[in-house]
Each structure stands twice: as C-alpha cells, then as structure tokens.
C-alpha cells in the first residue's frame, strides 16, 4: 500500500446498508451528506486522470475495485475512512452506478467503522448473479503499534439482490504457514492483505493475496485461496476452501529480496495461472503455475517480449485478461526501489506466446498534471468496445474511459509495419535527403499549449564518434533543436529555446552499433510533459545505467523550433535514410510500427 498523493479534502455521504443483519452506526457518527463531487475536469485529453468521474469516498481511498452486476449496474468496493491509510475508522465501502460511473449511489459500509477495521476488498460475481465481496477484517480487534488493517481474518459477505442487502459475515479459513508462525507477533494474529481480482478457471475460483512475516509490511509471500464449488454452491457452509501452494511456503524467491508482495493473477487459455507482484529491486516479478496453483515456477524478474527486464517501483503491478484473450499490465516504467514514481502510469499489452505472456513495449496510459501526485491500485471493466479504468490517488478515486484504439495499438504493435500519416509534417527519403536541408516550419509551444512533436529518423552509422550532428534546426542565434551522438554512443536531442533556455535528453547507451542501420524516434508530449526515446522499436527505459529512460519536459519548454530550416547530416559520419517530423506525439506503438517499415 503506502500513500501516493498529497491530501485532498473530500467528504461524502456514508449511509448505512439497510440490511438488518449488518451492524450499523448510530445516526450522526458518519459525515453528513453533501453535494456530489464534480464529474469531470475541463481537460480534453482522456489520459489526464482529472478528466475522469469521481467515485464516492470519505477521505482516504484505496482499491476502487469493480464488478459488473447481473442487472448491468456496476458495483464498486473500496477502502475508505476519515483519516489516512492505516488509521482507525477505516472500512470497506460499497456503492453502485447505473450509468457507467457517471453517478453513484450513496457510499455504504459493510462493517461498522467504529468497531474494528475492515479493508482491502475485492468483488466477484458468480454465473447466478450472486456478488461476493472479500476483505480483511480485524475480527479479534488486535491492536498493532502503527496500523491494524493488514491483519486479522479474511472474510466475505454476499448479495443476491445486486448489492441492496448483504449477508452476514463469513470467514475464509486461512491455513497457518511458516510465515504466520514466525511473524512479528509470534502467530497471535495473521498479517496479510489482498490486491488481486478473483478469477474463474474451468469453473473453479482462485484469489491471490500476500502474507507477511515482519510487521508492518516486509518478508512477504504469495498464497492462493482456491474453491472448487464457490461458483455454484448456494450454502456458504458447504463452500470448500483450500490454501495453495501446497506446503509451508508461498510464492517467493530469496534472490528478489525482502519485499515480495501484492501478488495478483490472471488465467492463461490452457488454465495455467500467471502471477505478477512487486519487489524493491526496481522490477516486478512473475511466476507460473501449470497445476491449478499447487506448485509454482521459481519467480523471476518479469520481461518484455524481447527479454528486457520490465521496470517499476514499489507500486501495485496490476494485470487483466481482456475479453479478446489479450492482456493488459499497469505499471510505472522506472527503476526506483521505493514508493515514489507512480506518475505517469504506463500500460503494456500482452499476448500468449510459448505458454506465457509476451508483453509489448509500453505506452503512457494516464498522467496527473501535478508531477508530485501519483495513482495506483487500479481496476478495469469492458462494456462492449468501451473500456474503463479505475484508480486511486489515496484521497480521490476515479473512473476514466480509455480510447479502444489505444489498446488495439498495444496488442498489434509488433505486427504492423506502417508510416502513421496523421500529423506528418515532413517526410524525407532518397534524393530529398541529399539536398542538405529542408523546410520544417512547425513551432509548437509544447508545455503551454500541451501540444507535441516527434522527430523520427533512420540512419546507417559509419561511426559513433562523439558530437556528430544528424539533424540541426538552430538559427543564427543558436536557438532550435539538434540531434547528435553522446560520448557513450547514444542519440541525443538538445533544445535551446528562443529565450536561451537549454534542455536535452539522450537515449540509452549501447543500443547503436557502428556500421549498422538504426531507427531513432524522439517523442515530445506536451500534455503529459514527457520526452521518450524509441530506438529500433524499443522504448528506452534506462537499462542498467539509470532509473528512468524517459524524462519530464520543463515548463519553460515552448518555442523549440524558431527556425524553419532543418539542416540534414551537417556533421555525420554515416547516411541518413529517412527523416520524418510530426506535429504531435506518436504512440510508442506507432514508433515501433515506423521501425518495422523497410
């Protein structure tokens, strides 16, 4: 878990559930109702998370997870409370939406927040329409020194009337394992939490979660709750439960350090289970089970399809299996080994390949205009061709609709060889490159107008000598941009604005080879305020050299091209083969598509 944003004031209605068997607080113990929050910001960029619709919370907000009910409405369960993460008064809230997240019913609680903590819920709908909500519940009222929400019992309630009324609480048996017996409190209480979504595989139920040994959140292992009959059994006393994997230890590798947590799973087409979780190595880890979660492969650092390790900080690395059989992976694309770096969110698309998931190069999915505020603990729902994501900033939770074409581009990234035509302002090949210069009169005020620019080139490098200049738009006063080669053999874009401000960023070293042909794309995105570099269809992520392969654009970066003349290979020991310039940011997928054009 852990906080990811500055505090925002938000107080919403928190009425009782109305089901007689639920303990409800006395009138006046919860905040009074106020007007609903604003639905959306004025942003026209769907990637701007402020453009989404807010979900009701009290103050702290975590894990806004969704289920589509049998009547077509959405049910959201989330953890909220008047304080901050881990404070007393934390509880699982439920609310429903009849109109895809535009409006919500008043937030209600599954447990009385004045008694003990309940937290970290996840819903699941069976074929009959019964909806379960599973969550942590401090049933023994165990008082830990700092927080008492990641411990106790694992429980559920269910509803057979689309979330109007709820059953009594039922406890899921959690077998004691070594991590419990050796935990900080000598097994007097079990320490755990769940961020995963339940999955159904061949009619059976699976839900992953994390146990921990050292309070409050270290020395972790992943486990799976499994039930053969939850999808069909109506009597909760007859639901069968077992804890997997078999034996005394969970999903964990000693080589990956003390922090191995927030395990979540997706099913593969053959019924295998693929697990992803976070570590403090700067990378997520993954493991596979071929026998219904009874045994697991040794966890390894997760990689892209080309074998490059994926980077993400200590943040929830969430996955989904889409209705088309493809996969989506939410992460943050940097190698920090702490809880920072959760803005922007990046998304990779996955396809099954050789019995596992092959992940595409990633795209920016969402960004928060305030660089200091992150987002995490997401969910996703599909409604036909419409796709919605849900997330929290710890004090605000939102629904955001995503452009389906964006997802399709991820899923087909490696199979398209084409030159994007939208926004193409300059295209030079063949004889045009031998003229020595070309007109390119595009002057974007990048950060002020939130516009973008992409410079894409293909070249055969005769050498990697430092300082070679491949492209140069500088005027007589030295203002403009230029592409050169750094001392470690990487391509670099430098910009000097009309008022003399300098900015520059290079791709990762070691990707260019003298004597070979390469493609390089510099993508400047004035909306998300990022600059990324794609070399030979591979998004630079910093590799072993730095935590970030992309960088943020400074707010002063506006007039980046005061000259209308672009000099071609003015000091280059090689041959330019193609130069293209766009008046917008290209998707990573489009840069990959460009690389595939021969």
Question: Keywords, please?
Answer:
disordered N terminus, Jelly Rolls, 598 residues, 40 strands, elongated, six-stranded antiparallel sheet, mainly beta
Tell me the name of the CATH class of the domain at 424-596.
Mainly Beta
Form type: elongated
Runs with pLDDT <50, length 5+? 3-38
Radius of gyration: 26 Å
Proportion of residues in helical segments: under 10%
Strand content: 35-45%
Classify the secondary structure makeup into a structural class: mainly beta
What does the main sheet amount to?
A: 7 strands, antiparallel
CATH topology of the domain at 424-596: Jelly Rolls
Total number of strands = 40
- How many alpha or pi helices? 4
How would you state the average pLDDT, rounded? 92
Q: Give the distance, in angstroms, between the N- and C-terminal Cα atoms.
A: 46 Å
Query: At CATH's second level, what is the architecture of the domain at 424-596?
Result: Sandwich
Please provide a written account of the structure:
This protein has a domain at 424-596: Sandwich (Jelly Rolls), CATH 2.60.120. 4% of the residues lie in helices and 38% in strands. The chain is built from four helices and 40 strands. The longest helix has 9 residues, at 588-596. 50% of the residues are buried. The model is unreliable at 3-38 (pLDDT under 50).
Secondary-structure blueprint:
Layout: E1 14-15, E2 53-55, E3 60-68, E4 74-81, E5 91-97, E6 107-109, E7 118-125, E8 131-137, E9 153-159, E10 170-172, H1 178-181, E11 192-193, E12 199-201, E13 204-214, E14 218-227, E15 242-244, E16 260-267, E17 273-279, E18 285-289, E19 300-301, E20 318-321, E21 327-331, E22 345-353, E23 356-359, E24 363-366, E25 376-383, E26 386-392, E27 397-402, H2 404-411, E28 424-429, E29 437-439, H3 446-449, E30 452-461, E31 469-472, E32 480-485, E33 491-496, E34 502-506, E35 517-525, E36 530-535, E37 538-539, E38 551-552, E39 565-571, E40 574-582, H4 588-596
Parallel strand pairs: 1-6
Antiparallel strand pairs: 2-27, 3-4, 4-5, 5-6, 7-8, 8-9, 9-10, 11-13, 12-13, 13-14, 14-15, 16-17, 17-18, 18-19, 20-21, 21-22, 22-23, 22-24, 25-26, 26-27, 28-40, 29-39, 30-35, 30-40, 31-32, 31-39, 32-33, 33-34, 35-36, 36-37, 36-38
């Amino acid at each position: 878990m852990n906080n990811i944003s500055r505090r925002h004031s938000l107080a919403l209605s928190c009425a009782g559930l109305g089901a007689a068997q639920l303990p409800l607080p006395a009138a006046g113990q919860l905040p009074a109702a106020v007007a609903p929050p604003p639905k959306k910001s004025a942003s026209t960029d769907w990637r701007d998370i402020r453009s989404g619709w807010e979900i009701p919370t009290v103050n702290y907000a975590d894990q806004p997870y969704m289920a589509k009910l049998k009547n077509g409405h959405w049910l959201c369960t989330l953890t909220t409370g008047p304080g901050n993460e881990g404070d007393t008064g934390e509880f699982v809230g439920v609310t429903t939406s009849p109109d895809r997240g535009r409006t919500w019913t008043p937030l209600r609680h599954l447990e009385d927040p004045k008694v003990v903590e309940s937290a970290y819920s996840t819903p699941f709908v069976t074929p009959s329409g019964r909806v379960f909500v599973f969550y942590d519940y401090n049933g023994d009222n165990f008082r830990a020194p700092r927080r008492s929400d990641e411990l106790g019992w694992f429980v559920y309630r269910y509803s057979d009337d689309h979330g109007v009324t709820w059953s009594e609480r039922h406890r899921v048996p959690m077998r004691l394992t070594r991590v419990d017996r050796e935990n900080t409190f000598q097994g007097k209480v079990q320490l755990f939490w769940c961020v995963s979504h339940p999955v159904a595989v061949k009619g059976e139920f699976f839900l992953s979660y994390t146990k921990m040994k050292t309070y409050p959140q270290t020395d972790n292992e992943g486990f799976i709750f499994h039930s053969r009959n939850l999808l069909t059994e109506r009597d909760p006393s007859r639901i069968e439960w077992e804890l997997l994997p078999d034996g005394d230890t969970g999903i964990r590798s000693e080589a990956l350090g003390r922090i191995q947590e927030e395990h979540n799973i997706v099913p593969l087409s053959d019924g295998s289970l693929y697990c992803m979780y976070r570590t403090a190595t700067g990378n997520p880890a993954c493991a596979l089970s071929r026998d219904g979660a009874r045994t697991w492969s040794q966890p390894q650092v997760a990689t892209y399809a080309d074998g490059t390790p994926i980077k993400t900080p200590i943040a929830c690395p969430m996955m989904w299996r889409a209705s088309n059989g493809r996969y989506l992976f939410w992460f943050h694309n940097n190698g920090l080994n702490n809880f920072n770096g959760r803005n922007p969110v990046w998304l990779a698309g996955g396809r099954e390949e050789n019995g596992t998931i092959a992940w595409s190069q990633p795209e920016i999915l969402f960004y928060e205009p305030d660089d200091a505020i992150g987002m995490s603990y997401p969910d996703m729902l599909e409604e036909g061709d419409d796709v919605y994501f849900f997330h929290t900033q710890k004090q605000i939770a939102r629904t955001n609709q995503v452009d389906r074409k964006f997802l399709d581009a991820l899923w087909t990234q490696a199979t398209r060889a084409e030159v994007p035509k939208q926004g193409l302002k300059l295209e030079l090949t063949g004889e045009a490159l031998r003229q020595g210069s070309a007109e390119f009169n595009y002057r974007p005020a990048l950060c002020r107008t939130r516009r973008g620019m992409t410079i894409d080139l293909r070249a055969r490098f005769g050498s990697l000598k430092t300082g070679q200049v491949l492209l140069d738009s500088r005027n007589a006063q030295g203002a403009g941009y230029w592409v050169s080669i750094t001392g470690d053999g990487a391509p670099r874009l430098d910009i000097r604005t009309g008022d003399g401000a300098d900015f520059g960023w290079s791709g990762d070293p070691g990707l260019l080879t003298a004597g070979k042909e390469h493609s390089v794309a510099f993508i400047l995105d004035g909306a998300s305020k990022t600059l990324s570099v794609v070399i030979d269809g591979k998004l630079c992520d910093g590799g072993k050299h730095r935590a970030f392969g992309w960088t943020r654009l400074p707010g002063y970066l506006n007039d980046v091209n005061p000259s209308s003349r672009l000099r071609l290979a003015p000091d280059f020991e090689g041959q330019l083969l193609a130069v293209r310039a766009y008046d917008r940011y290209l998707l990573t997928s489009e840069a990959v598509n460009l690389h595939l054009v021969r």
